[in-house]
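If your schedule permits, I should be very grateful for your opinion on a structural question. I would ask you to consider whether the tokens describe a fold that such a sequence might reasonably adopt. Thank you for your consideration; the sequence and its tokens are set out here.
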Amino acid sequence: VSTPSRPLEQTARDLPQLSENELAVIRLLAAADGRWAGIEEIASVAQLSRLLTEQALEKLFAKGFLRDRHNYLDGTSFRLSSAGRDYAIEQGFVR
């Protein structure tokens, strides 16, 4: 017995639940339009402490919404992954 295949689109219940801080980071990186941003910039623009920003970044990274890039001079920077970009577009964070 075969089961019907699942549609490729995600429903709202399939989308991960994000905290307000995680949403702030997604919005900020969506507004950055693909540009890499460091943790200090993200914390400053999102008006979050560094610890809350680190927590949000770690959770988003674990969910596959972020890419990171390590640089010895500038530190680690982040941008949306393809999954993060798609989420930001679906949520209307990108125009």
The two ends are 44 Å apart (CA to CA). The chain is about 45% helix and 10% strand. The beta strands are 37-38, 66-69, 77-80. The helical segments are 20-31, 39-46, 50-62, 82-90.
